[in-house]
Amino acid sequence: MSNTIDNLLHEARRFAPSEEFAANAVATAELYERAAADRLGFWADQSRDLLHWHTPFTRTLDWTNPPFAKWFDDGELNVAYNCLDRHVLAGNGDRVAIHWEGEPGDSRSITYAELTAEVKKAANLLTSLGIHAGDRVAIYLPMIPEAVIAMLAVARIGAVHSVVFGGFSAESLRSRIDDAEAKLVITADGGWRKGRVFPLKDAVDAALANGESTVEHVLVVKRGENEVAWTEGRDLWWQDEIALVDADHVAKAFPAENPLFILYTSGTTGKPKGILHTSGGYLTQAAFTHKNVFDLHPESDVYWCSADVGWITGHTYVVYGPLANGATQVLYEGTPETPHPGRWWEIIEKYKVSIFYTAPTAIRSFMKIGRQHPQKFDLSSLRVLGSVGEPINPEAWMWYRDVIGGGSTPIVDTWWQTETGAIMVSALPGVTTLKPGSAQVPLPGISIDILDEAGVPVGKDQGGLLVVTEPWPSMLRGIWGDPDRFIETYWSKFGDKYFAGDGARYDMDGEIWLMGRVDDVMNVSGHRLSTAEIESALVAHPLTAEAAVVGAADETTGQAVVAFVIIKQNQLETAESIDVAAELRKHVSQQIGAIARPRDIFIVTELPKTRSGKIMRRLLRDVAEGREVGDTTTLADTAVMSSIQAKLT
Ligand code: 6R9
C-alpha cells in the first residue's frame, strides 16, 4: 500500500495560519499542553467553563465498567437551559439565534429570548401530552425552526428525542418508532424541497397504519399547507396547541448521564443501530469543539452548517454546539440549487456568513457546475470553512479555499462519527498549519491511534485501523436496547480501544489521513488500495467532476478496481472526441501506479448517494459485479440506479 498512496500523502501544499488570524484565534497551542498534562482535568475545566451546572460535578469519569462510560455523573444540568435561558439571563436575549431561510424565500429571524419563549411553551405542551423524563419522542420534520424548538423542548423536560431524517420512508420511520417505543411523533404537513412541497404527515400516517404502535399522539406543524388526512384524538396541530399552553416553564436539572437522544445510523448489517447519547459529556464536547474548531466569536460571527438536523452533524453543529455557545446561525430549509444554482452563496451574502461547514460531496457538485455561480455573490464575509462526512480530496479542498474562501480562509477537515458525538480529529484554525486532504491531528483531550490487524500501533508512513484509545466525553453510551451489539461492533476487535471502522494512515509528519471505511478498502493482487485514493486521483483529472470507485470480484486479481465517473459539464465536448476511459486509466497509472489502474471505467451522469451525501458504493459494487442491485431505499434519489444501469447496457 505504501507506494500506492504517494499521490495523497506526498501532498506538498501547506498553509500556515496568518499572523492576524492567529492573534485573534479562540484556540491556542496551549490547549494541547493542558490536555496532555491532565486529560481528565482538562475536560472537567472545559465542562465548567462552557456549561452551567445546576449541581456541580465532583467526578469527571467513571470507567469502572468499560465500555460503559459515565462522565461528570454526580453533576446535574439542563441541556436546554444551557442552550437558551442562560444566554438571555446573561443579557444576550436580543442576539439572533437563528436566521431561518425557507426554500420558497420566506424568512424569519429568531432571537435567543424568542427561542427560549418558544421552547418553554413547547415543553409545557409536551408535558400536557403526558411526556415525562425518559420517554422517547420521534421527530420527523423539515429544516424549519420548529425542528430545533422540538428537540430542545424534549431535552428541557428530560425526555429523549429520536430525530428521523425527513427523507426516510414510512417504513424506516416505523422501524425507528418501534425500536425506541416512541410515545409521540412530531411532524409537519409537508416541507419545501426542490420547489415542491413534500408530504411528511402522509408518511407518518402510513408508518402508523399497520398494527398497534406505542404512539399516542401526532403533533403536526403547519408548514407545507398541503392537504392531510386526520385521525381524531391522535392528531393535533402544533400551532393550535401551542397557543393554549402556559408561557412559563422552569427548567429542572437532570443527572449528567440522563439520555438526551437516540440517533439511528446504518451499520454493516441491515438493521440500523440506535446510537445513544447522554447529556453532560455530550454537551461539553459539542460546545468545546464548536467553539475551538470553528474559531467561534459569538458576538460577531454568523455561522452556517448546511447539515440536516436528521444527521448527527445537524444535532451537534446545528442545535447543541452553536446554541450552547450562544452563536448566531443560519438555518436553511431547501436544496442548494433551488431556485437557482447559486442559492447557498446568495444566503452567505445575505446574512454575511463568516463560518461555513459543509460536506465534500456538496463541494464537488459545485465544482461540477462551475465557479461562475459562487462568483456572482459577495462571499468576503467568510473566514473559516469546515468539511465533514468523508475524506476531502486535495483538489476539492483547494477549490473550496480558492473559490469559496477567497484563497485565504483556513479549512478544517473534521473527522468524527454519529458514535463519537462530536469532532475528534481536526486542525485548529490559528494553530495548525493546514495540509489539503488530511484531517491532521486529534483534538486536545482526544486520544487516537492507528493499529495494525494485530492491534500494534503503526508508525509514520504506515496505515492501519483508526481507534480511540481513551474514553471521551461525547462518546456513545450504547446502542439502544442492544448492549451486546454495542460491545461486539466497537469493542471486541481491540479490547478496551474503540474501533471506528475507518482505515487511516500516518504521513511522514505523523499526521492522520482517513482512507475510507475499512469495508471500502480493496485488495487487488495482494495490494491494499483505498477507494478514496483512486477517487482523488480521478477527480484531479481536468475532465472529471466526480468519481466513485469500488472493488469488484475478479478471477485473477481477487478484486479489481471499477470506477464510475461523471464528466464536467464544460468538458463534455472534449470527452466526446477522445477515449475517456483510456485517458483516465493512464492518468491513474501516472498518479498512483499501474496497480491502481481501473479495470473498468463507466461514464455516468449521476452517482447513488444517501440523503447525507455519502456515495453508496455497495450498490455500485452490485452493478460492477453484474448482480441484481440491492436495497436502494436509503438513496436520496432512487431513480439513479436505473439510470446508471441503462447507461451500461
Ligand atoms: C460526522 C459524520 C461517519 C463516517 C466515518 C468516516 C466518514 C466523516 C470524515 C470522514 C474522512 C472526514 N467521515 N468525516 N472520513 N474524513 N473528515 O459524518 O458521521 O454519518 O456517522 O459517518 O463518515 O468514514 O466513519 P456519520
UniProtKB/TrEMBL annotation:
Catalytic activity: acetate + ATP + CoA = acetyl-CoA + AMP + diphosphate
Domain Acetyl-coenzyme A synthetase N-terminal: 29-83
GO biological process, one term: acetyl-CoA biosynthetic process from acetate
One Pfam entry name: AMP-binding_C
Cofactor: Mg(2+)
One MF term in the entry's GO annotations: ATP binding
Record's comment on post-translational modification: Acetylated. Deacetylation by the SIR2-homolog deacetylase activates the enzyme.
Domain AMP-binding enzyme C-terminal, residue spans: 533-614
Amino acids binding ATP: 389-391, 413-418, 502, 517, 528
Any single Gene Ontology cellular-component annotation: cytosol
Sites of N6-acetyllysine modification: 614
Residues binding Mg(2+), per UniProt: 539, 541
Residues at which CoA binds: 193-196, 313, 525
InterPro entries attached to this UniProt entry: Ac_CoA_lig (IPR011904), ACAS_N (IPR032387), AMP-bd_C (IPR025110), AMP-bd_C_sf (IPR045851), AMP-binding_CS (IPR020845), AMP-dep_synth/lig_dom (IPR000873), ANL_N_sf (IPR042099)
Record-listed E.C. numbers: 6.2.1.1
Keywords recorded for this protein, A-Z: Acetylation, ATP-binding, Ligase, Magnesium, Metal-binding, Nucleotide-binding
Keyword Metal-binding: yes
The AMP-dependent synthetase/ligase domain, residue ranges: 89-480
Keyword flag Endoplasmic reticulum: no
Function: Catalyzes the conversion of acetate into acetyl-CoA (AcCoA), an essential intermediate at the junction of anabolic and catabolic pathways. AcsA undergoes a two-step reaction. In the first half reaction, AcsA combines acetate with ATP to form acetyl-adenylate (AcAMP) intermediate. In the second half reaction, it can then transfer the acetyl group from AcAMP to the sulfhydryl group of CoA, forming the product AcCoA.
Family assignment from sequence similarity: Belongs to the ATP-dependent AMP-binding enzyme family.
Protein name: Acetyl-coenzyme A synthetase
Organism field: Leifsonia shinshuensis
